[in-house]
Design a protein that fits this description.
single chain, alpha/beta, Isopropylmalate Dehydrogenase, two-stranded antiparallel sheet, globular, binds 3-isopropylmalic acid, binds manganese (II) ion
Length: 358
């Protein structure tokens, strides 16, 4: 089979880590007899420098013509002073919206080999944890009405949050369906004690949960959830939440794994086309120095094989190759922890994962 993937390398370490994922995919293609076709498009600061726009029309069209999208990272100090709608980050929101990717999956799991890297106490993480955050990605305050106006204290800025039953239902369904394939527990996180959107969210989730009697359901207020995540992360399986709460909680969840350089993500819509990217950012401080950890992007490529192409065995082969390389002590600088080995670079880590696929 042929599979077409748009490559959005972006900024900072983006190009290096995308090259790593491509090398791994090419090895998988060779081994399993698939043809992966890659087409690069501009996004973020790189696109601003070339075209003046963070998300050129050609990029959107190119992604729509592919079966999936693999994204590196966008942004950097060079573009920090641009106005809001010209910033590299704007491209991310634009491409998510244009591709209808309303479901954002952000797994935060503790890799057994990296337990020592978690900032949480040993007794809290000793049993491990494996959380799947399902974040709503194309609605809420990120996309609501915003602007400036005259208020009680003079000029003020405002952003608004709106959620429809339809938007809540579709993200809720995604979460319950995913929970069915895991340990069947969903926690919906909101701020229903204050926000009207959260009250509608909660009411809708309750109604939906009746269609999933086999899945254990509970609600949690977002402030409590932030606390529970560091107090006892293993209590969570699937978390479903709004765009903004999901943004914040997924950073917290990824940090307690101690290995943000390892975490992948998938953004999905109604069809099979998805966008896959590491959770970490563009790390401009180490860009071009062969120091980046390519694993989050390589694992994102594995998610792409599983969710967009239906190639589960191939996805598992990549995940096993990563596990194997870690178990033999290979470490990039970010996941060194207290280990005594000397760190390897992005290219060497990639080469070892490709070799493990043999
Ligand atoms: C993320 C990022 C983005 C978001 C920014 C860069 C627009 O923080 O993917 O979590 O807030 O969604
Ligand atoms: Mn974020």
């Amino acid at each position: 089979m042929e599979y077409r993937t748009a490559l959005l390398k972006g900024d900072g370490i983006g190009p290096e880590i995308i090259d790593s994922a491509v090398a791994v995919l090419e090895k998988v293609g060779e081994k399993f007899g698939h043809r992966f076709i890659f087409t690069p498009y501009l996004i973020g600061g790189a696109a601003i420098d070339e075209t003046g726009e963070p998300l050129p029309e050609e990029t959107v069209k190119g992604c729509l013509a592919c079966d999936s999208v693999l994204l590196g990272a966008v942004g950097g100090p060079k573009w920090d002073d641009l106005p809001g709608n010209k910033r590299p980050e704007k491209a991310l929101l634009g491409i998510r919206y244009a591709l209808g990717l309303y479901t954002n999956l952000r797994p935060a799991k503790l890799f057994p080999a990296l337990k020592g890297a978690s900032p949480l106490r040993e007794d809290i993480v000793s049993a491990g944890f494996d959380i799947m955050i399902v974040r709503e990605l194309t609605g809420g305050i990120y996309f609501g009405e915003r602007g400036y106006r005259q208020g009680k204290f003079g000029e003020e800025a405002y952003d608004t949050e709106a959620y429809s039953v339809t938007e809540i239902e579709r993200i809720g369904k995604a979460a319950f369906e995913i929970a069915r394939k895991r340990s069947k527990r969903v926690t919906s996180i909101d701020k229903a004690n204050v926000l009207e959107t959260s009250r509608l969210w909660r009411k809708t989730m309750h109604r939906l949960s009746e269609q999933y009697p086999d899945v254990e359901y509970r609600d949690l207020l977002v402030d409590n959830a932030a606390m529970q995540l560091v107090r006892d992360p293993k209590q969570f399986d699937v978390i479903v939440t709004s765009n903004m709460f999901g943004d914040i909680l997924s950073d917290e969840a990824s940090q307690i794994t101690g290995s943000i350089g390892m975490l992948a993500s998938a953004s999905l819509g109604d069809g099979t086309r998805g966008m896959y990217e590491p959770i970490h950012g563009s790390a401009p401080d180490i860009a071009g120095q062969d120091k980046a950890n390519p694993i989050a992007t390589i694992l994102s490529a594995a998610m792409m094989l599983r969710y967009s192409f239906g190639l589960s065995a191939e996805a598992a082969a990549i995940e096993n190759a990563v596990d194997h390389v870690l178990s033999t002590g290979s470490r990039t600088a970010d996941i060194l922890g207290s280990s005594a080995v000397s760190p390897i670079g992005c290219r060497e880590m990639t080469a070892r994962i490709v070799a493990a696929l043999e």
